[in-house]
Design brief:
Blueprint lengths: L1 H20 L4 H10 L56 E3 L17 E3 L17 E3 L18
Parallel strand pairs: 1-2, 2-3
Length: 152
C-alpha cells in the first residue's frame, strides 16, 4: 500500500512544479540563471523571485508578467525589454538600463531604483508605492514634455 502511494506521489508531484514555473520558455529561464544572459529570450510569466541577476544581459527579452519580487537587478541591461505587468516588488534596480523598455503596469512597490536609465521607456500606470527612487527619471506628475536624459 505504501509503495503504491509513493509511486503515485512520484508521478503526480512534478505536475505541481510544472505549473509553478510556467514560463514562456523554461530553457530560457535556465539559460538566464546559469549564464546571466538571455538576449531576446521569452521569459514571460517566469518566476524569478529573489533571483540574483547582477549584470544580467536581458536586452529585448520578454519579461511580460514575470515575478521579479525581491530580485537583485544591479547593473542589468534591459534595453528594449518588455516588462509589461511584471512584479518588481522589493526589487533592487541600481544602475539598470531600462532604455526603451516597456515598463507599463510594472509593480515597483517598495523597490529601490537608483541611477537607472529610463530614456525612451514606456511607463504608463506604474505602481511606485513606497519605492525609493534616486537619480532616475521616474516620478509622479511632472511637467508635460519633460525630457529624461540618456546615459552617455
Amino acid at each position: 500500500m505504501i509503495r503504491k502511494l509513493l509511486v503515485t506521489l512520484s508521478l503526480v508531484t512534478p505536475l505541481f512544479f510544472v505549473s509553478a514555473v510556467k514560463a514562456g520558455n523554461p530553457q530560457h529561464v535556465q539559460k538566464l540563471i546559469s549564464t546571466g544572459e538571455c538576449v531576446g529570450c521569452n521569459l514571460s510569466g517566469a518566476n524569478l523571485q529573489g533571483a540574483h541577476l547582477l549584470g544580467a544581459d536581458l536586452r529585448k527579452a520578454n519579461l511580460q508578467g514575470a515575478n521579479l519580487t525581491g530580485a537583485n537587478l544591479e547593473g542589468a541591461d534591459l534595453t528594449g525589454a518588455n516588462l509589461t505587468g511584471a512584479n518588481l516588488t522589493h526589487a533592487i534596480a541600481t544602475n539598470v538600463n531600462f532604455k526603451q523598455a516597456n515598463l507599463n503596469r510594472v509593480n515597483f512597490t517598495r523597490a529601490q531604483i537608483n541611477d537607472s536609465n529610463v530614456y525612451g521607456a514606456s511607463m504608463n500606470n506604474l505602481n511606485v508605492t513606497e519605492a525609493k527612487i534616486y537619480n532616475t527619471g521616474i516620478g509622479i506628475g511632472g511637467e508635460d514634455g519633460a525630457q529624461v536624459p540618456d546615459w552617455k
